[in-house]
Amino acid sequence: MPVDLRLPAIRDALAGHEHERAELEHVDRRAAVAAVLCGRDEDTEVLLIRRAERRGDPWSGHMAFPGGHVEPGERMVDAARRETREETGLDLRRHGKLIGRLDHARAVARGRSLDMIIAPYVFELASLPPAFSPNHEVAEVIWAPLAPMLTGASHTSLEYELDGERRQFPGYDVEGRVVWGLTYRMLGTLFSVLHPDWEPVDW
């Protein structure tokens, strides 16, 4: 399945994508994340964080896009920029350019749907940022190439205990770390925009 993963092609695909919007007036909580892209020769890499291990955090230790809750009166895209800067030190107003939006997603924690909508925004780096400076919420910052995920080369599964039962969830292996759950689903949305016939690997 040949797909052009260079930034100009991704930019063009996102420009023609009409993202699905949730009815935000019926949702109590809102969040926003940033899928930050950086071109690497014939491929493009996406910025991921590994969340710090924190008691009480349903996403403790998970791989994710930088992002978080939208503050009262704040635009969702501004929340994505603010949270990215707070969590990684990357200033998207200075170093990034907004190139698209992905479908709104409902947050899920421990197998249960939450009354929270997450808006994913896609940015490309207009210039290389200085070194990352993650805050206490982030254990590490990682660049992950898109090609192995889109083609299924890095597809894997994660065993997770849910309601006392061990279950297998699909994911991507990124240098030994598994991207699964909501971030896995949002990456799938991006891949379906880049290639209309794309389907996740049957596992």
Describe the structure.
There is one protein chain. By secondary structure, the protein is α+β, with helices and mostly antiparallel strands. It contains five helices and eleven strands. The protein has helices spanning 7-15, 76-88, 92-95, 146-151, 181-194; strands at residues 29-40, 43-51, 63-64, 67-69, 96-101, 105-109, 112-125, 138-145, 155-162, 165-174, 177-180. The two termini are 18 Å apart.
Question: Notable features of this structure?
Answer:
single chain; 5 helices; alpha+beta; 203 residues; globular
**Could you say which structural class the secondary elements and strand pairing correspond to?**
alpha+beta
- Main β sheet profile: 8 strands, mixed
SS strand fraction: 35-45%
Spatial shape: globular
Oligomer: single chain
Q: Mean of residue pLDDT?
A: 89
Number of helices: 5
Query: What's the count of strands?
Result: 11
Helix content: 10-25%
N-to-C SSE series?
HEEEEHHEEEEHEEEH
End-to-end distance, in Å? Answer: 18 Å
The whole-angstrom Rg is 16 Å
Runs in which pLDDT lies below 50 for 5 or more consecutive residues are none
